[in-house]
Design a protein that fits this description.
Helices cover 55% and strands 0% of the residues. By secondary structure, the chain is mainly alpha-helical. It has 2 domains: 8-86; 95-214, no CATH class. The longest helix is centred in the last third of the chain and has 15 residues, at 181-195. It is globular and about 55 Å long. The model has no long low-confidence stretch (mean pLDDT 93).
Length: 229
């Protein structure tokens, strides 16, 4: 079964450093690159060897301060790193946020324990046909919802934005990862212009970040993945 999230225990600090160094970070995260190699070395010396270790050490203010003391890294830097790493693991979105769904379908899904995008994505691993039969619903009623659940695994993607992506033909994180950013940018703008899925403007740079982030989302074994998280 394809995992909803990255396996943080399998990602070492070198891979984390590669992702940070090669990503187009949002401006508030640019300070993460200051002395990055030295800070990763200090983290290793403090006993941090994987992304899982790092997330555990940054989990609370107390553990963060303990890591700061052990590594000599400023706590403000560690708090910024915590926010950046947290973005790699988007929180599952409640199906109630997908407010354009027919209420009866949402109710049936919730009664089956499928209350958010992660639970639905994992339940759909057996296939939409099997899941639809188990739930007693039409497969066509689930197809778009499963795609939205998959798209919401990408950093920054809300159910509403996932709906706009779906309107451009994107059916999951894997298709976004393979998309041409400029073509996708124009397709999203066109889809939103007609349906007004969201307000505001999503720029080409944002779409490039989106495609790059999608490439790190776990896919089926035959789908190529970057080495970094």
């Amino acid at each position: 079964m394809t995992s909803y999230y990255l396996d943080d225990s399998a990602i070492d600090l070198a891979a984390l450093g590669q992702r940070l160094a090669t990503s187009d970070l949002i401006p508030s995260q640019d300070p993460l690159l200051d002395g990055l190699d030295a800070k990763l070395t200090a983290l290793r010396a403090a006993g941090i060897h994987s992304l899982a270790d790092l997330r555990a050490a940054l989990k609370s203010q107390k553990t963060l301060e303990t890591l700061s003391a052990a590594s000599g890294i400023d706590p403000d830097y560690l708090r910024l790193l915590k926010r950046a790493v947290g973005g790699f693991f988007p929180k599952p979105r409640s199906l109630d946020e997908i407010d354009w769904l027919e209420s009866g379908l949402v109710s049936r899904l919730e009664k089956a324990g499928l209350t958010n995008t992660q639970k639905l994505f994992e339940a759909a691993s057996k296939g939409a046909t099997v899941l639809a039969k188990d739930l007693g619903v039409e497969e066509s009623d689930l197809t778009d919802l499963i795609a939205i659940s998959d798209l919401c695994r990408i950093q920054w993607v809300s159910p509403t934005y996932a709906r706009a992506l779906l309107a451009t033909g994107q059916t999951g994180a894997g298709t976004v990862a393979e998309a041409d950013p400029e073509a996708l940018f124009h397709a999203i703008a066109k889809a939103n212009e007609g349906a007004r899925y969201y307000s505001g403007k999503v720029g080409l740079r944002d779409v490039r970040r989106l495609v790059a982030a999608a490439a790190y989302v776990p896919q089926a074994p035959d789908t190529a993945q970057p080495d970094a998280p």
